[in-house]
Amino acid sequence: MKKLIPVIFVYILQAQTIITHSNWPYGTDQIGNQWQWYANSSPVSVNMDSLINEVNEWHFETGPTAQTWTSTLIDLSGVPGNPPPGSQFAEKQQITGQPLTYMYESENSNAMYVYGFYNQSYGQINYSPYWIPYKFPMQVGAYWESSFEWEFYGDFVHEEYTDTIIKEGTLYLPDPLGGPYPCLVIRQRYHAWDDYGIINEYRYIYEWVVPNLGSAVTIMSQSPEMNPYFTTAERYIRLKSATLNETTPPTFSETQLIPISCYGPFIVKSKITDPSGIYTDSLYYKFSTGGWIRVYHDSVINNVYYFKIPQVTPPVTVNYYLVAKDNSTNHNRGTDPEGAPINTYSFFFIDPQQDTFPPKFYNTTIWHDTSYAGPYPVKSTIIDSGGCIDFAVIYYRIGGSGSYTARFPDSVRQNIYYFTIPQVVPPTVVEYYLMAQDYSYNGNVGYDPHNAPDSVYKFNVIDNMPPTFTGTTVWPDTAFNGPFPVKSIIKDPAGISWARIYFKIHINPWDSLPYDSVIGDTFHFHIPSITQTSVIRYYLKACDNNQNVGRDPANPNQYYQFIATYVSIEESSLKRKGLSFDINIKDRKLILFVPCENFISLKVYDAVGRIVEKIAEGKLNRGIYEFSLKKLQKGIYFVILNSEKTKKIEKILFL
Fold first, then answer.
1. Which of 25, 239, 282, 392 is most deeply packed, by most CB within 10 A?
2. pLDDT tens-digit series, residues 202-261
3. pTM higher than 0.70, yes or no?
4. Domain 468-564 sits in which CATH superfamily?
5. Is 126 helix (H, G, I), strand (E, B) or coil?
6. Fold of 26-243
7. At 69, is the secondary structure helix, strand, or coil?
8. One Pfam match, by short name (predicted)?
9. In 3D, which of 203, 196, 223 has the Cα closest to residue 160?
10. pLDDT attached to residue 546
11. Which residue, 408, 426, 427, is CA-closest to 418?
C-alpha cells in the first residue's frame, strides 16, 4: 500500500531553453557588443555522429586556436557603402588574414535579417531579398528556410539554408567564459551555386547558441558534403570572449524550496549574481487566488539569498517568483523564472488521499515538419498537485498507422522529463503523445494532448536528402591496362534504388555501367580496360528509394580523373613476372623473362647434380627469351636460375 503523507511539489512553468529577440544580444540597443572566437586555419578531424547523437553536455574548453575572429555591432553611420533598405545596424567582422567585412543587419520579434555586406576588397553586395540566420522563438523542433541571391560581376550566386534546432543542453567554453551555459543546437543544410557553373557547394553546419550570449560554437563541414555526420571540419570556431553592453539582468541559479516543517514556513533560496552587483531583490508570493505579497531577503551568504514564505493551510496553491535589479546605470531587472509573473514557480499542497487531479504537462516539445531524420528529443515539464509522478511514458508511431510504441524517459531532472523518438526513414509521418500517472491514492492519469490518443502531436519527415558517398576509390595515374575497380560506401536511410558509374575513356563519349556487386553498404564498380594510353574521367551516381539522386563528386562540373598509360602484353608480362622462367613440359620449351639488363646463369642439372645443359650464361638485355629443351632425354632435371639478386630452382620430369 502506498504511504499517504501531505506532500508539496515545486514546478516551473518556463523550463525549456527558449531564445527570443529579447534575450538575443543583437539589435540597435546592443551597439558596441563585441565577440572574439578562436578558429582553425586548416581542416580538423571531428566526430559529428558522437557529438550530436550521444551527448547533451558539450565541452569546448579546448580546440583549435590558430586564428582569432572578431565581430562588433556598430551604428550604420560608421558603415561604408550604402546600407540596403531595412538595415538597422551593422556587424563589423575581422577574420585573420582577410579584409574587413560589414554585414547589414536588422532584428525584430520574428527574426534576425541580413541584407548584404560590404567588403573592403570588392565592395558592396546586396542580398535579394535577405537571409534569415535566426528565427524567433528558437527552441527544440523549430525549423525555418531562407533563400536569396546576389550578383557578383555579372554572375548571380544563389544560396539556400535549411535550419532545424535539433537539441538542447549545456556547454562549456574556454576560460574566462567557462560554463555551464544553457544552449540550443542548430543544424543547417547549406547549398550555394552560381549561373556560370563555377560554384556548387553543399555543406552541413552546426551552431551552438546561448541566450544572452549569442553564437558560441560553429562547426562547418568541407564542400561538397552530403553526410550530416561528417568527420572533417573546414571551420571549427569557439567563443573566446564577449564584451556586451550592460543590458544583461542579474542571473539566478540553484533556486530551491525548503520546507521548515510539514506545513511551512518555506525557505526559498537562490544564487543571484551580476558583475555590477545586486541593487535590490524581492520574493513575490500569493496563496491560491489572493494577491501578490512582496518580501525581502532574510539573509545573504556568498551570493545565496534566503527568503521566507509563511505556513499554509491545505488545500492551497502557492505561486512565487524572484526579482532582482543590478547596480548598473540601467538597474537591469531580472526575474526567476524568466517572464514572471506570467511564468512562476508553484506548488500545490494537498492530502494525497483527496487528490483527484491528473498530472499536467507544460512546454512539451512540439516538432514541426522537417527534413531531419532523427532521433527527435522531446521534453516536457510534468507536474502533479499531489507532488509525485509514479511514471511517465511517450507513445509514438511512425508511418501514420498501426499501434503506438511506448518508451520511458531517458532521464528526469527535477520535474523535466526527457524522451527520445528514434530515427526514421523519410518520407514518413511521426505521431506522438505523453502519458503520466501520479503517485496518489487514486493513481490519476494525465495525457498531453489532454484528449490523446484521439488527438496527438504530428509532423512530417520530408526526404530531400540524396544518398551519401564515402571512401570512393580515387585512381592515381597508372601504367595499368585495366579493368579499373572502383568502390564506394553509399548510404541512404530510405535505401538505394540504383547506382551507376559514369566514365569517359580518351575521346570516347560518356558511358555508364551498373555496380558489379554490393557488400553491406559498399558498392563495387569497374571501368573497362584500355587499348591505348588514355585520360579516364569518372563519377558515381545513386538514387534512393524516394527518387533523390546523389552524385560523387557532388559538383556536376567535377569528376575524378587519371591517366592510364597503355602497357603492351610483353611489357605487362615483364612487370608482372620479374626475373623468372616458365617451362612448357608438353612442348619442351623454356620462356625466360628478363625485366632489365642483367648478368644471369641458367643451367639444367640431372638428378645426380651434373650439368647437362647451359641455356644462358652472361649478360642479357631486357626482353623475353625462348629456349628449346628437346635435347633432354627422359628423366628428372633441375633448372637453376642465378643472378646477383635472384636464385630460382624448379624440378621437372620428362617422360
1. 239
2. 999 999 999 888 999 999 999 888 888 899 999 999 999 988 876 678 889 888 887 766
3. no
4. Immunoglobulins (2.60.40.10)
5. strand
6. YmcC-like fold (2.40.360)
7. strand
8. Por_Secre_tail
9. 203
10. 87
11. 408
Confidence of residue 6 (pLDDT cuts 50, 70, 90): very low
Task: Note whether 284 and 275 are within 8 A (CB).
Answer: no
Beta carbons of 224 and 200 less than 8 angstroms apart? yes
Dihedral sign (CA 108, 110, 112, 113)? negative
Looking at the structure, give the CATH architecture of the domain made up of residues 360-461.
Sandwich (2.60)
1.10.287.110, 3.30.460.80, 2.130.10.10, 2.60.40.3080: CATH of 570-654: 2.60.40.3080
**Structurally, what CATH architecture does the domain formed by 10-16+247-349 represent?**
Sandwich (2.60)
Confidence grade of residue 632 (pLDDT, cut at 50, 70, 90): confident
Note whether 456 and 433 are within 8 A (CB): yes
| Alpha-carbon distances of 193 from 101, 159, 215, rounded to whole Å | 22, 7, 26
User: Distance between CA 349 and CA 312 in Å, rounded?
Assistant: 8
Task: Please provide the DSSP assignment of 230-275 as one string.
Answer: -SEEEEEEEEEEEE--TTPPPEEEEEEEEESSTT--EEEEEEEE-T
3-state secondary structure of 572: helix
The residue type found at 20 is T
Which position has the higher pLDDT, 1 or 159? Answer: 159
Asked if 26-243 and 468-564 have one fold, the answer is no
Q: What is the pLDDT of residue 5?
A: 34
Task: Report residue 77: phi and psi, to 5°.
Answer: -65, -20
pLDDT 10s digits, 360-380: 999 899 999 888 888 999 999
291: exposed, middle or buried (Cβ count in 10 Å: 0-12, 13-18, 19+)? exposed
**Model pLDDT, residue 374:** 85
Distance CA 85, CA 127 (A): 11
- CA dist 459 and 473 (Å) reads 39
Task: Output the CA torsion sign for 264, 270, 276, 282.
Answer: negative
